[in-house]
Design goal:
165 residues, mainly alpha, de novo design (two linked rop proteins), 6 helices
């Protein structure tokens, strides 16, 4: 949230109250884009069935899977990491659309609106990453860990591990 107001950053509408990834606006819009990219893959020539079409399907799945997986992580840095992976898959898909135009698989007039939708998803991902960074202190989960340093080898050999064998 912005410190000066109660408004969420651009592209983060309804993100804060989301208890499931399916409620996230960024996921919903990315899901629509994924489905559109699957339709593109279905319209590619048979010669691209195991090439570009397969690549599009994998990147499209990665787009939404990483949003879902990141949402399931507790620490904000992990959530951000998965959102950035999702963004990478998205940019790969936009380049795949460029390939479709360059190779005359689909007309540019059909590809242009898809690319616009892709850049909209990018804005939402970036907005959600900004939101995650802004709330990092509030929801960061940490675990206690022993101090890093020399390990007392005698202490380790005297541990009773019979219940763990």
């Amino acid at each position: 949230m912005n410190r000066e107001s109660n408004e969420q950053p651009k592209g983060v509408r309804n993100q804060k109250a989301s208890s499931t990834f399916e409620e996230l606006e960024v996921y919903q819009v990315a899901r629509e884009f994924r489905m559109a990219m699957y339709r593109v893959a279905k319209h590619l020539p048979e010669s691209e069935k195991f090439g570009l079409a397969s690549q599009i399907r994998r990147a499209a799945v990665s787009l939404t899977n990483n949003i879902a997986e990141g949402h399931g992580r507790y620490h904000y840095l992990e959530q951000i990491k998965f959102m950035l992976q999702s963004r990478g898959s998205l940019e790969e898909l936009i380049d795949d659309l460029n390939i479709c135009v360059d190779e005359n698989y689909l007309p540019e007039v059909e590809i242009a609106p898809l690319k616009e939708n892709g850049w909209r998803v990018r804005q939402l991902i970036d907005g959600y990453v900004r939101y995650l960074r802004s709330r990092k202190a509030a929801n960061a989960v940490g675990e206690c860990s022993p101090p890093y340093g020399n390990v007392d080898a005698d202490h380790l050999t005297s541990l009773d591990l019979t219940n763990y064998e």
